[in-house]
Write a structure and sequence with these properties.
Elements lengths: L2 E19 L2 E15 L4 E6 L3 H4 L3 H15 L7 H11 L4 H19 L3 H4 L6 E3 L2 E3 L4 H13 L4 E5 L5 H14 L4 E5 L6 H14 L3 E5 L7 H10 L4 E3 L6 H9 L5 E4 L1 H19 L2 E4 L6 H14 L4 E2 L16 E4 L2 E4 L4
Parallel strand pairs: 5-6, 6-7, 7-8, 8-9, 9-10, 10-11, 11-12
Antiparallel strand pairs: 1-2, 2-3, 4-14, 13-14
Helix pairs in contact: 2-4, 3-4, 4-11, 6-7, 8-9, 10-11
Bound molecules: magnesium ion (MG).
Length: 347
């Protein structure tokens, strides 16, 4: 199928509230949306949310990369996603989010041209998944209020962002959440904030506190493979690598080093093809899989819901960024019913 046009534009989405992780605060998601047109008239739409602390990319670099590569990508005939992905990798070898955006928009257009839902092209495993809801870094009483509000809206799995306030204050936040919502299961994400020793102290405290924790994500710096392995070897809770894994090569390196127990895959890091390869590595290694997001709105989350439902491979789903952003619900391919994300189209 020949690609006729590929373009991108900035999409600045104000968040409903302040969003804070150990990597900083956000009030606006500086995203990029793309459109593609194929020779049969099929059109694709896509969105990514580049985060410079993860891929080194920004809204500006993604816009420049798409504009700079569109001429060389357009006019060519691609049999399928992998042919297009090969061309992209040669043009933009180190630009993860830009490549992801181009892959996703091409795949969306291709699925429309073939009249096969993306979920089915990816395996058609299921039609719905359950997501957690992430809780921003905030003082303990505010954290508890946010957790109670999420539980009240049907979320039984909460992902608590930690690390910005030090181990003792973070422990107070966790206890405040347990008191507010004793029925919730917690996933903890430190976004690289701890040293290996701090992480072990915190995780051992968690294990001893009786708080039900499903997994602990990226406790240490993404470059500290030894530290990650050290935490993993001492943790009774599964350790999930996020910022440490962008490519299948990263995934294999982590498996060889026994440096984690699972991966958090995000389309903005790995696009579709590398995500599929990372899934294969995790399944072969017996590792766990999370599907996460950056700050995509509903359009960006749609492709991730197709990946989750199509592959049916994820133990933990963390697709909640559209919940932080209002105004583009008509762009989404899924219905949100409490914690359940259900694909809209009958397939
Ligand atoms: Mg994370």
């Amino acid at each position: 199928m020949r690609l006729l046009s590929l373009s991108a534009e900035a999409y600045n989405a104000p968040l409903r509230g302040l969003w804070e992780t150990a990597q900083g605060r956000s009030e606006v998601a500086y995203n990029v949306r793309a459109s593609a047109l194929l020779e049969d008239g099929s059109r694709g739409r896509a969105e990514v949310s580049p985060r410079s602390y993860v891929t080194g990319e920004t809204q500006d670099t993604v816009l420049q990369d798409i504009a700079g590569s569109a001429d060389r990508l357009c006019g060519e005939d691609y049999d399928g996603l992998f042919a297009f992905s090969n061309a992209l990798k040669s043009l933009l070898p180190d630009r993860h989010s830009a490549r992801a955006l181009a892959e996703i928009v091409f795949f969306d257009a291709l699925a429309r041209a073939w009249k096969v839902p993306r979920c089915r092209l990816l395996g058609g495993a299921c039609q719905e998944v359950k997501s957690d809801l992430s809780i921003s870094i905030a003082p303990p009483d505010e954290t508890a209020r946010l957790a109670w509000d999420a539980f009240d809206r049907g979320f039984r799995h909460l992902k608590l962002k930690v690390g910005g306030l030090g181990v003792e204050e973070e422990a107070r936040r966790v206890l405040a959440v347990r008191e507010a919502v004793p029925g919730a299961l917690l996933r903890i994400d430190a976004n690289q904030a701890f040293s290996a020793e701090e992480a072990v102290v915190f995780i051992e405290w968690l294990a001893g506190s009786g708080v039900p924790v499903e997994c602990f994500e990226q406790p240490v710096s993404c470059t500290d493979l030894d530290g990650l392995a050290q935490v993993t070897s001492r943790s009774p809770v599964p350790i999930i690598a996020d910022e440490s894994v962008l490519t299948p090569q990263d995934a294999l390196r982590l498996v060889k080093a026994e440096a984690a127990d699972g991966f958090n895959i995000k389309l903005a890091k790995s696009g579709i093809r590398d995500s599929l390869e990372i899934i294969a590595i995790a399944r072969a290694a017996g590792w766990k899989l999370m599907l996460g997001c950056m700050l995509e709105s509903a359009l960006g989350s749609s492709m991730a819901v197709h990946l989750a439902c199509g592959t049916g491979s994820f133990h933990y789903i963390d697709l909640d960024s559209h919940y932080l952003i209002s105004g583009d619900e008509d762009e989404q391919d899924f219905v949100q019913d409490g914690e359940t994300l259900r694909l809209k189209r009958p397939e």
